[in-house]
């Protein structure tokens, strides 16, 4: 009999609330013969305050044993900016070589968007997850003086760019429209830009049925709000991907609905799935958080582990629920229950 | 008698068409006793193809003599990406130390926006113009091989950050709402992020009447489309500013309306004013280009040179024209004429 061994990291703020609903729906979606085993980990602000630890080598070894990781959200105003981001979230992405940061945006019927009219939004962003300006490379000299110089180094390798570009081409090829847009800023960041552009053009030859396009990142933000229908699959660098996926989430119904996967396609390490939103401490513990993004993240998780039918069932349940949601103000629990019922039914 | 000595760079594509209208309106706005002297320079794709030059040392010396520069647009598909951007536009910004890249966004009545409802948009972005990832620092090794490593170095100095942050605080203080938002990514780009944040907080002490806020750049893109009213003045790094000002232009009526100033507040070098849009070669020479962004750029130019009344008159003329524009399809010339008449009357 089959089984899924899942590491669960509820985290801070609304993290535990949304993760509980994610697990509820995930369980409801699984076939009877699949055994779901979960283990909770206590990473986040509380553990940091108690022990000073964000993620130890032992933690990494422990997490390595799981098939996948479900993460709620990490972060709290009581922890200095950057400590948990770099000490936990980015550390995991780098150590588990999550080079495909997958972020779908789809605006279904009934979902409100800040855009006028009825925009047609159905694209995925493949954000590189292990390079670019996120490597922590850089430093500062004469720190704190009027002569300080601080640098940040974006590191880009042919190895790192090629694997994510190839992954994005394969994803584009598997979609009906088969279109892939590279987003970069190659007219200014020309060293990294040439690397990305050359590799993109080279890999394109292996995918002759995929239509390709290129946009500077600044222009891409314009088209996200004026012509979102022009996007099918987008591949981009770590920082550009961070920026444009928040914008994409905003136009596609808000970050309350945005799922993401930090994926190592080789499965050498467990992949991690998380809502794009943060820990939202202002509404934590009130049953107000929308668990939809976490539920959609469990669909990405199931798809990654090969449960395509179950993943699609969760996504359909969410679409159906969203279409009927209107202005109703259900609690976190109620939304989770409704989704679990739909998925099981 | 007073005079303005203006260097005019029509450039490529629609550049010459929109610049002609900009000059028309600028002349109409000036008091009788101010003598406007203009000299055209032929920078751009044509000159590059003819001579291989983008901007020589002699060119820079020549331009240095002027009170200000009015630029249309530079760029053509026949020139490899990056050549004119770095060889001309960025070179001028760096050589003339244009550390304040000023980009106002205002959505007036009658102007259509991709956002739903009636968003309230009236803010300015002060984008740093001489540092960050734009310095051209970086390189590549094993170029073109499967082992290539390409880097881009963002260079940030206390000197460079403090002067632009101070300028932004002063601009915020001069506006009714007196609010300044720093946009960065200090949870990830922590060396540059700390420098920006520390200087921002330090300079804030000198401006106790200015309300301050901080947003990560990814979150800022969300609020640009969901709550643009939360912004008054924004200060940010060169690359983040590039990205968010295109988005800002898109929501505030399109880049056809977005003006910008590349300003050296010390007046040690001439400042340069240009529409945010590019050369749009696809519609060049057809009288279809909207000259409004260039006209608004001349208002920024006049304000920089101390002609506040005339600058405001141009801005009012544009607002009034936009409010009545509707779906009318006037030519470049007709829009310029209409604005000139309003400004003169
Ligand atoms: C929290 C932060 C480090 C993170 C990032 O910048 O990648 C977040 O914004 C995201 O997009 O997952
Ligand atoms: C053309 C390009 C170099 C430029 C920039 O990146 O600054 C443009 O996008 C702008 O915003 O003025």
UniProtKB/TrEMBL annotation, chains A, B:
Catalytic reaction annotation: (2R,3S)-3-isopropylmalate + NAD(+) = 4-methyl-2-oxopentanoate + CO2 + NADH
Cofactor(s), names only, from the UniProt record: Mg(2+); Mn(2+)
Site for Important for catalysis, residues: 134, 185
SMART domains on file: Iso_dh
GO MF: 3-isopropylmalate dehydrogenase activity
The enzyme's E.C. designation: 1.1.1.85
Metabolic or biological pathway, per its Swiss-Prot or TrEMBL entry: Amino-acid biosynthesis; L-leucine biosynthesis; L-leucine from 3-methyl-2-oxobutanoate: step 3/4
Domain spans labelled Isopropylmalate dehydrogenase-like: 5-339
Cofactor details (free text): Binds 1 Mg(2+) or Mn(2+) ion per subunit.
Residues holding Mg(2+): 218, 242, 246
Keyword GTP-binding: no
Domain of life: Bacteria
Pfam families membership: Iso_dh
InterPro entries: ICDH/IPMDH (IPR050501), IsoCit/isopropylmalate_DH_CS (IPR019818), IsoPropMal-DH-like_dom (IPR024084), LeuB_actb (IPR023698)
Name of this chain's protein: 3-isopropylmalate dehydrogenase
């Amino acid at each position: 009999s089959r089984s899924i061994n899942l590491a669960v990291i509820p985290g801070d703020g609304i993290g535990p609330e949304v993760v509980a609903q994610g697990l509820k729906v995930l369980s409801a979606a699984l076939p009877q013969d699949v055994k779901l085993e979960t283990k909770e980990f206590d990473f986040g602000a509380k553990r940091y305050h108690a022990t000073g630890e964000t993620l130890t080598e032992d933690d990494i070894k422990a997490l390595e044993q799981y098939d996948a990781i479900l993460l709620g959200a990490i972060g709290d105003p009581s922890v200095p900016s950057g400590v948990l981001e770099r000490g936990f979230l980015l550390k995991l992405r780098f150590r588990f070589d999550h080079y495909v940061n997958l972020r779908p945006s789809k605006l279904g019927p009934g979902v409100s968007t800040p855009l006028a009219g009825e925009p047609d939004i159905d694209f995925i962003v493949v954000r590189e997850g292990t390079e670019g300006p996120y490597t922590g490379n850089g430093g500062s000299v004469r720190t704190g003086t009027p002569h300080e110089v601080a640098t940040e180094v974006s590191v880009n390798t042919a190895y790192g760019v090629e694997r994510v570009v190839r992954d994005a081409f394969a994803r584009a090829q598997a979609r009906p429209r088969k279109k892939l847009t590279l987003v970069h800023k190659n007219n200014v960041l020309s060293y990294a830009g040439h690397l990305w552009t050359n590799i993109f053009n080279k890999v394109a030859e292996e995918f002759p049925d995929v239509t390709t396009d290129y946009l500077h990142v600044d222009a891409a933000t314009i088209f996200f709000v004026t012509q979102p229908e022009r996007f099918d699959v987008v591949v981009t660098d770590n920082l550009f991907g961070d920026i444009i996926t928040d914008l994409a989430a905003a136009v596609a119904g808000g970050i309350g609905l945005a799922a993401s996967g930090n994926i190592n396609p080789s499965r050498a390490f467990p992949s991690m799935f998380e809502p794009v939103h943060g820990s939202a401490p202002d509404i934590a513990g009130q049953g107000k958080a929308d668990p939809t993004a976490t539920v959609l993240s469990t669909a990405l998780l199931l798809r990654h582990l090969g449960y395509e039918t179950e993943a699609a069932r969760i996504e359909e349940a969410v679409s159906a629920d969203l279409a009927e949601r209107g202005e109703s103000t259900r609690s976190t629990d109620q939304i989770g229950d409704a989704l679990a019922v739909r998925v099981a039914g």
